[in-house]
Design brief:
The chain has one domain. It is built from 1 helix and 5 strands. The longest helix is centred in the N-terminal third of the chain and has 14 residues. The chain binds zinc ion. The site of zinc ion (ZN) has 8 residues, from loops.
Length: 83
C-alpha cells in the first residue's frame, strides 16, 4: 500500500496540473435543442453535455466566427450581446 501511494504521488506531481477534472469545460460544444450547448467532463472524464438546464437562448459565435443559435445554462451563458 505504501508503495502504491508513492508511485501515485509521483504520477500526480507530473500530471495533475493539466489533467481535466469532472465538470471542467471542454472547448468543443454541441448544439442540441433543450440542452446547454457546452460540453463538460463527466465523472468518468468523458465529454458530455452540461447537466444544467438551459435558461438562455441566442446567437453565439465560435472561434472561427461562425454564428450558432444555442441554448445555455445560467453558468455558461455566453458573454456576448444578443441584440
Ligand atoms: Zn451549461
Amino acid at each position: 500500500m505504501s508503495d502504491m501511494g508513492r508511485r501515485y504521488r509521483h504520477v500526480r506531481s507530473s500530471l495533475m496540473d493539466r489533467m481535466p477534472k469532472p465538470g471542467d469545460l471542454i472547448s468543443a460544444f454541441s448544439v442540441q435543442p433543450g440542452r446547454c450547448f457546452r460540453m463538460i467532463y463527466s465523472d468518468m472524464l468523458q465529454a458530455t453535455h452540461c447537466y444544467e438546464p438551459p435558461v438562455w437562448k441566442g446567437s453565439w459565435k465560435d472561434v472561427k466566427g461562425r454564428t450558432w443559435y444555442v441554448e445555455a445554462c445560467q453558468k455558461q451563458e455566453p458573454k456576448v450581446s444578443t441584440r
